[in-house]
Amino acid sequence: MTADGSKAEDKGNNRAHREEERLEGHNGDSEPESAPVQEARLAFEAGDYRRVRQLIRELGKSNDPATRQTAQELARRVQADPAILLVLLLCAALFIGIACVYVFR
Q1: Given a cut of 90, is residue 65 above it in pLDDT?
Q2: How many Å apart are CA 53 and CA 79, to the nearest integer?
Q3: Residue 48's domain spans which residues?
Q4: Taking 60 as the threshold, does the pLDDT of residue 97 lie above it?
Q5: Is 40 contained in some domain?
Q6: Is 7 a member of any domain?
Q7: Distance, CA of 81 to CA of 65 (rounded, Å)
Q8: Prediction pTM value
Q9: What is the mean pLDDT of residues 79-100?
Q10: What is the 3-state secondary structure (H, E, C) of the chain?
Q11: Within-domain flag for 75
């Protein structure tokens, strides 16, 4: 590692490149993705998460382990963030608490 951190930067770029290839379906060892997998990725990139959820249900039933893994990865990426759900619940509890204090005061 150099003083300017260039080796760490190269390592980060390689990791980002591998992640990008994996998400695009260029695994190096395997063949290109099937049409349903590509359709799910295109729907994800377009922001059509409802369609992505429909497609990953179908892909999850596949016999191919790589296809099932891709479906699981896409499912993980479209699920709600637990931190956001926690904040939502806390805000709802605060709102109900304030409403109760206001009404029953």
Answers
A1: no
A2: 9
A3: 33-80
A4: yes
A5: yes
A6: no
A7: 26
A8: 0.53
A9: 95
A10: CCCCCHHHHHHHHHHHHHHHHHHHCCCCCCCCCCHHHHHHHHHHHHCCHHHHHHHHHHHCCCCCHHHHHHHHHHHHHHCCCHHHHHHHHHHHHHHHHHHHHHHCC
A11: yes
